[in-house]
């Protein structure tokens, strides 16, 4: 049967889209529940039932989202056990998802980035709040807290983001080395949260507005 040419055109378009961003990654990050699951599993192994309870949802509300993340290879099943007569499946992040470097992050569509960023910020507030209430936030004298506002030029912005990228690489290496020592059973684990943020503030939008330019 003769082709009308549409199929070939569509295939060509899909190939181009895959070069910009993997559609599987875009799909995985496009829903706030999936973003939340990824952030949670970045901290620990967990079951959909545990995550659902933390959100005040039924486990079935997460079933589809967990299935999507498994299918795209971002999380994997690591075990199962019976709890109160119900078999729970436990998942962890797969090796596929570590982090996005700057180049990959720029390729993620804006709405997807916004969803993931909102989930990350919510996780920051939730974890910091829980630690403050539990008294663990300042339990160690060498806890780090810092915030600064700066006015940077383009070169300064690029140098700042590069410094943060290098720091992230170092932190990930430290996490890997710690995991090996903990596996050997020679050290006590310290549940730790590290958040890194560097962004243009709302003042930047004000300077770029037509009103600001006219003024």
Helix and strand arrangement:
Elements: H1 6-20, H2 23-29, H3 32-43, H4 48-55, H5 60-71, E1 75-83, E2 86-93, H6 102-107, H7 110-134, H8 154-183, H9 202-208, H10 210-214
Antiparallel strand pairs: 1-2
Describe the structure.
- With 215 residues, the chain is mainly alpha-helical.
- The protein has helices at 6-20, 23-29, 32-43, 48-55, 60-71, 102-107, 110-134, 154-183, 202-208, 210-214; strands at 75-83, 86-93.
- The longest helix is centred in the C-terminal third of the chain and has 30 residues, at 154-183.
- The model is unreliable at 1-20 (pLDDT under 50).
Short overview:
This protein is mostly helical and 215 residues long. It has helices at residues 6-20, 23-29, 32-43, 48-55, 60-71, 102-107, 110-134, 154-183, 202-208, 210-214, and strands spanning 75-83, 86-93. The chain has a domain at 1-102: Orthogonal Bundle (Arc Repressor Mutant, subunit A).
Distance between the termini: 65 Å
Radius of gyration based on Cα positions: 21 Å
Shape, per Cα inertia axes? globular
Show unreliable segments: 1-20
**Approximate helicity band:** 55-70%
> What share of the residues does DSSP label as strand, in percent?
5-15%
Encode the helix/strand succession as letters: HHHHHEEHHHHH
- Kindly report the name of the CATH homologous superfamily of the domain at 1-102: Winged helix-like DNA-binding domain superfamily/Winged helix DNA-binding domain
Give the class from helix and strand content and strand pairing. Answer: mainly alpha
Write down how many β-strands occur, each being a DSSP E stretch of 2 or more residues: 2
Tell me about the largest β-sheet.
2 strands, antiparallel
Do you know the CATH architecture of the domain at 1-102? Answer: Orthogonal Bundle
Q: What would the CATH topology of the domain at 1-102 be?
A: Arc Repressor Mutant, subunit A
Average predicted confidence as pLDDT: 78
Q: Can you count the helices?
A: 10
Strand order of the largest sheet: 1-2
Name of the CATH first level of the domain at 1-102:
Mainly Alpha
């Amino acid at each position: 049967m003769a082709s009308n040419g549409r199929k070939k055109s569509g295939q060509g378009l899909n190939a181009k889209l895959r070069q910009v961003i993997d559609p599987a990654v875009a799909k995985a990050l496009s829903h706030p529940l999936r973003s939340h699951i990824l952030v949670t599993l970045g901290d620990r192994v967990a079951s959909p039932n545990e995550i659902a309870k933390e959100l005040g949802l039924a486990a079935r509300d997460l079933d589809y989202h967990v299935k999507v993340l498994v299918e795209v290879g971002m999380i994997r099943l690591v075990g199962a056990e019976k709890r109160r007569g119900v078999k729970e499946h436990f998942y962890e992040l797969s090796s596929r998802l570590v982090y996005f470097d700057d180049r990959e992050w720029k390729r993620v569509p804006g709405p997807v980035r916004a969803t993931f960023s909102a989930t990350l910020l919510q996780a920051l507030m939730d974890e910091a709040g829980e630690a403050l209430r539990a008294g663990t936030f300042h339990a160690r004298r060498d806890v780090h807290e810092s915030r600064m506002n700066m006015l940077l030029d383009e070169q300064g912005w690029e140098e700042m983001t590069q410094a943060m990228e290098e720091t992230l690489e170092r932190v990930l290496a430290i996490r890997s080395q710690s995991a090996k020592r903990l596996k050997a059973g020679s050290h006590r684990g310290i549940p730790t949260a590290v958040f890194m943020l560097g962004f243009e503030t709302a003042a930047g939008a004000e300077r770029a507005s037509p009103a600001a330019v006219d003024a």
